[in-house]
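Troubleshooting log. The previous structure file for this entry was overwritten by mistake, so regenerating from the original sequence record. Sequence copied from the archived sheet and checked twice against the printout by T.R.
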Amino acid sequence: MMKTIVPFLCVAILCFCQLAGATNSQPIWIGGVVVKFQQGTPEETKREAIQGVLNEEETRRVEITYLLDITIAAFDKGKYEIDDKRFAQIKDDLESLDNIEFVNAFMINKDGSYAASLGEFYVKLRSSADFGKLQSLANSTSTSIVEPYEYMHNVYILYADKHSQGNSSEMADLFSATGLFRYASANSLFSLSVTTNDLYYNRQWALYNEGTPVQYNGTIDADMDVDSAWTITTGDSTIKIAVLDSGVDTLHPDLIPNLLPGFDATGDTLLKGHPSSNFSEDGHGTCCAGIVAAVADNTIGTAGVAPMCKIIPVRIFFYIDITGPVMPYTTMQFGIDGINYAYQTAGADVISNSWGLSDSMIAQFPFLDTVIGNDVINIAADSGRGGKGLPLIFSAGNEQDSVTIWPSNLPGTIAVAATTMCDELKTATDCSPENWYSNHGKGLDISAPGVKIATSDMLGSNGFSGSDYYMSFNGTSAACPNAAGVMALILSVNNNLTGTQAREVLSRSCEKVGGYAYDENKVYGTWSMELGYGRVNAYQAVQDAVNFVEIHETSQRDGINMLVYQGAGGLNYIRYNLEEPSDVNISIYDMLGRLIFSNQTTGQTGFNSLLLKPDVFATQVCIVRLTVNHSRVESQSALFTSTKK
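Regenerated output below.
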């Protein structure tokens, strides 16, 4: 039951179509209107106002949905389109009414994704001294400053209504174009890509694959070796995994012991991270949480990958059937609020995100604005966990595409593709009994099991299965929490790791499975288009995390930072960070000043890594010298521990 995700961040609406009543021939079209009424307006009054400006055909086709604090009027569930001239007339007629704050277009594309501009947009100042510039521009454009954004310094929420020079997306573009601010970014509604598609432990092939019929006759040992990892750790109760999703059933007996207080970014103060129960798809977040950290050894249900770790339920999207199919919807505000709450307020050590937005959707909806989302994610990755850095795990997407979806394709996130019970990339022709694809290729980091995953479900008849457990959760929605659980085990044995170091342990410990060509050298080793660094291996990962010893770190000089450290299996590495591709010379000297190793290469932007082979170095103290474009960084003393005989 794989679900296609649509993104979690949308923005305004600019592209209009040609012919009213046309059959959706355009890449995107206007399939309705989004109306913001003044607070307290009765639903019947809203309906009468909208129907009062529509013609006979539009009135016959219109379906009205009340969502959050807006009203969506879609024509024939978005299948009937209006052109820009007709939209402008409807907009003018509605905005002439006193109780209406703004009217925007409800946009649709051929893939069945939806987006609409809302009223808010965000502006990040260059410094606090620039607040006067913000006030002046807000006054001149008839926009209002609502309040400072509570989670970010020098970020303000502004509001564009019918009296402003444009909608929130247009105002964000205008504020950004002035060059006075770091950025301006709009808030929008949009449909999401949410990838779905120890009574039952024998079904959990991702933890321990015996190739049995109940495990779909997969390949023996095509698993994450979680059972072996549990001989070292089943998780530390101080490690917290935030599950940003549709909510988690906070009454589920297999989850209750591991649940921390939840948060509802959609503004529902009663749910506190619990999903609504309107559709079977609302079970999505509960399934993800069960994969990460369902309680083990309690005679019921399933076991999570990290069954002693804690879950922070964070609801950032919800399901609704505005246009016919039940789909997940969210806004930019919900997404960034959820991430900020998870790492700033709740102190998450890992964030699991089974959602995203395809490049094609971003390209088709030019008002889709990810600027503030990118900023929040980068800040969280760098400064989360008290400044050590926060691992953010994201689904790569469920499309037949060799590019991963946003935001899994950002440098600060970890993108996860889905594998089968035969250690293959999920495609329509693999060994599994399911017909779908996993994104892979550019932007991919790692892979994890994502087919027929047994996990917890919403209680009773509310979730996917009509019972308390679901045997067939799938998609990169399942692969993501599997990888997040392994990351939680890594931090359970070594919480001193920085976010970058934890990412390195996870990547280097992957198994090179599937028979694919791991023929590209990247920061953390050899890489393939199909599975990235490979399929995650929990047992190897926790061993490497225990053995990961930072030997020496230099101070940053001229934009270069070098680290000599001991990683997997006691092997030594040199890691360095470059601001741009550069010629790099690495020289290693013994304490008598004799050159014992030299390497010349072209380093790429970002982190680069070099393995110091044990057959080259005996155990000794050395001097490491890194030269990049004539700028030298030198370690004082690095102790190389070798297995050389």
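The longest helix spans residues 476-493. Archived copy saved in two places this time.
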